[in-house]
Structures are given as structure tokens and as C-alpha cells.
Amino acid sequence: MSLPRVLVTGGGRGVGAAIVKALALAGFDVAFTVRTATSEAEALIAAVKAEKPDAVLAAHSLDLADREAVGAFAGRIAEEPAYFGFVHNAGMSYDTLAAMVEQAKAEELMQVNYWSFVRIAGALLRPMTRAREGRIVAIGSIAAEVANPGNGIYSGSKAALAAYCRTLAIESGRRGVTVNTVAPGFVDTAMLERYAAYRANVEKQIPLGRFARPEDVAAVVGFLLSPGAAYVTGATLPVDGGLTAALAIQR
Questions:
Q1: Residue 225 located in a structural domain
Q2: Concatenated DSSP letters for 120-160?
Q3: At the top level of its lineage, which domain of life is listed (predicted)?
Q4: C-alpha dist (Å) from residue 150 to 93, 98, 99, 206
């Protein structure tokens, strides 16, 4: 009996690697994309197989900033046997004040964070609807809901992603496909190393008192692909330690 197939973008390191590991250990056949994290992907596969020798997972090289490459990849997977799940984790950041935005950099970010999801999800959706089952999860951000100086383009891309997922959810629900967004806050990965000097102060403002671990996000993704989440769609689930629930002004 074949395992349910799942595709994860940006699975070589950080949150993506934690998602790949969690899904592979849960019994999914996991394909994941990497851009530069080739050695990390090889180490990840070896680590998962050491823990679960019969795990099925494979890495594929793909630059999501390359529109033609994404189109070709989407064309290939559309012809493959249906995937049960798709997790769009890959993303890039671009921090600058709104008045200083360079359009070329902003468009590259939108291609990676938003348009690659639209293209790949579109390719996978038709086979999912024919199979009458499927789970699509986008890794968004709490930045889509709350403003932070210098974060406008990144926040905009994540807001667009969440809005698109809600529409996709209502369009595909009757055909057995659920679509949800997971919105992390501060996660302990290399992407946030530049905040190291401010970490202690930031953690004081998080009700749970710490940054998320990549495994915290992966666990929520695993739930959304599990039988227990069959009736969850069109939702955005924050994984932020209560940060967005707290009043910004501290006494």
C-alpha cells in the first residue's frame, strides 16, 4: 500500500526541516524542495532514516524565485499521482522602510512567498479534487495581522497568502480539500539571528516567555494533515506563544 504523498517547499533547514521530519516520521511519503540547502537536506534524510529506516523522503532542487523553473516544476507534479498534502514553507524576508522599497527586491519576495504557492497549489489542486481529498497548508506569519516598522513588503506577502488560502478553502471544500494557514511568531531559526541583541526584551513580551521551536510549528502542520483536522478549513492558526493576543502597551 502506497503512503500518502506530501510536498513541502523550503524543507532543507529551520521550520521546513522540522516539518519534513515530523511528516516523514508520521508515515507520509515526503518530497521537499531546497534552493541552496543541499548538504542540510542530505543530513536531514540520513537523520530521519536513522530514526525510521522505512521512511520515504526525497529532496528536489528548486529556486522558487525563478518563475520558469517553478512553472516547469508545477507542470511535472501536475502529471504525477495525486499528492495528499502540500505545505508551502519556503519564504524570504526583505526589511526596509516603506519609503525605501526597491520594486525588484519586492517582486522577488512576492514570487517566492506568494506566487510560487499560487502556481504549485494550482497544479496540485486538480488531482486532489479528483481524488476527493487533500490538505494544503501555507506557512504565513503574525506579521500579516500586526504591523512592524520596516516589514511592509514581507507582511504584505503573508497577508496576500492568507487571503488567497481563505478563498481557496471555500472554492475547494466541497471537493474534499482543506486549506489553512499557520502563522508563526518569533521562531528560533537562523532567520531571526539578526534579532539576537533584542531577544531577551522580545521574549519578555511573549506570554509564554520564549521563542517558538521549529518543532512547535511542525506539530501544528502535522495536526492539519491528520484525520483530526478533517473539519478545519479556511483558518489561520497563530503559533506565537500568545503574542498577538497581548496588548502591545506594557505597564
A1: yes
A2: HHHHHHHHHHHHT-EEEEEE--GGGTS--TT-HHHHHHHHH
A3: Bacteria
A4: 11, 7, 9, 21
In 79-232, which ranges are continuous DSSP H helix?
103-110, 116-131, 152-172, 199-204, 214-224
CA-to-CA separations, 219 to 15, 128, 130, 141, 211, in angstroms, rounded: 10, 23, 28, 16, 15
pTM above 0.90?
yes
Supply the pLDDT for residue 247: 67
**How buried is residue 129: exposed, middle or buried, by Cβ count under 10 Å (0-12/13-18/19+)?**
middle
- How far CA 171 is from CA of 161, 174, 178, 215, 251, in Å, comes to 15, 8, 10, 31, 45
Distance CA 202, CA 198 (A): 6
Closest alpha carbon to 65 in 136, 13, 15, 113 = 113
Looking at residue 142, which CATH number applies to its domain?
3.40.50.720
Cα 6–chain centre separation: 13
Tell me if 115 is assigned to some domain.
Answer: yes
Q: Out of 154, 164, 198, 231, pick the active-site residue.
A: 154
Amino acid at 228: G
Q: Which region among 72-81, 152-161, 180-189, 192-201 has the lowest average model confidence (pLDDT)?
A: 192-201
Range of the domain at 23: 5-244
Pick left, alpha or beta for residue 33 (phi over 0 → left; psi -120 to 50 → alpha; otherwise beta): beta
Q: Is 83 a catalytic residue?
A: no
**Which letter does DSSP use for residue 114 in this model?**
I
